[in-house]
Amino acid sequence: SRSAVLKYMLLVSHSDILFCTVKHSMTVFFTASSGVPNFPEVVAVMLNDDVEVGYCDSKLKTAIPKQDWMETLRDEDPKYWKLYTGECTVHQQLFKEEFHAVKKRLNQTGAVHIYQRLTCCEWDDETDKVSGFNLYGYDGEDFLTFNMETQTWIGPKPQAVIIKHLWNNDSARNIFFTNYINQVCVYRLKTNLKYGMSFLLRTELPSVSLLQKTPSSSVSCHATGFYPHRAMMFWRRNGEEIHEGVNHGEILPNHDGTFQMSVDLDLSTVTPEEFGNYDCVFQLSGVKKDIITKLDKAMIRTNWGEPEAGVPAGPAKLKTEVKVRRGLAMPEGLSSNKGWHAPWFCVLAACPTASEP
């Protein structure tokens, strides 16, 4: 059913969103579906530094710019945009044919199925080093991964074995993906960056709130509106980071291109007298100051009952202080990939509203 497809696409977890963590990146995300009425058979989304910049689908005749500076690129370099549109159209057709071939090989030609490809190139503008990856997903799970160094495909699922052998024997296919990542993808990335550098290199600090659903539930330290996505948030007690009783939420995209995240603190063992010993720390890559929010009962925003005396009924003005720190060491590489729920496809490409059958 349609809702079954959307469950694959709308269930987003932290591990599902693949972020390229080097200086600059371009990601192309294709999603093909079968058995879904009134929906494009193939959708493609292009991202620069994890920001959606272009979109096309099997119902459109041209690619659509998703940022003002991409519209400028389209208008000032129509030849480039024509090539991009042509590439998008050709890749859609090839991807659709590949999808049908895979279903046939797996003897799954009927019902609803989802087929996805995520291709990313990464470029360090200081060292000029280029790297990348190519991943496939099928019906919400990892399917095949291309190892550029060994020029081989890796498939963790038994159903992927037959496809893996076919692709490993297809040297032309492997050469194509290697050249695409090392040359075409990087060329597009650098061209787009010329127009979007000021936007992509900006820094936006978040608003931070303390939230609590019920009097007995955990307190959530919630940050929203920050950019870039490379951020960390944690709870401290007496100036030391704590892990027990702490639950880290996922980093999720907002519709305006910024991000949000939260981290919960279990208060079951914390007495009111100890609240002053706790604070929430938000750190943003490239910013040398922490945003520190004290755990203050008067500043916790709730959604039950009437506000207590002295507690603002609207958004609370937090007791937030900023302290200088030494810097944020962000891990290199990519976040783990444990599932395919197409977060960018749905959040950025305007998924239809799910409805129960």
TrEMBL record:
Signal peptide: none annotated. Residues 206-280 form the Ig-like domain. GO terms for biological process: immune response. Coiled coil: none annotated. Pfam families: C1-set, MHC_I. GO terms for cellular component: external side of plasma membrane; extracellular space. The keyword Manganese does not apply. Keywords: Glycoprotein. PANTHER family: MHC CLASS I ANTIGEN TRANSCRIPT VARIANT 1-RELATED (PTHR16675:SF237), MHC CLASS I-RELATED (PTHR16675). Belongs to the MHC class I family. This is Major histocompatibility complex class I-related gene protein-like. It comes from Neolamprologus brichardi.
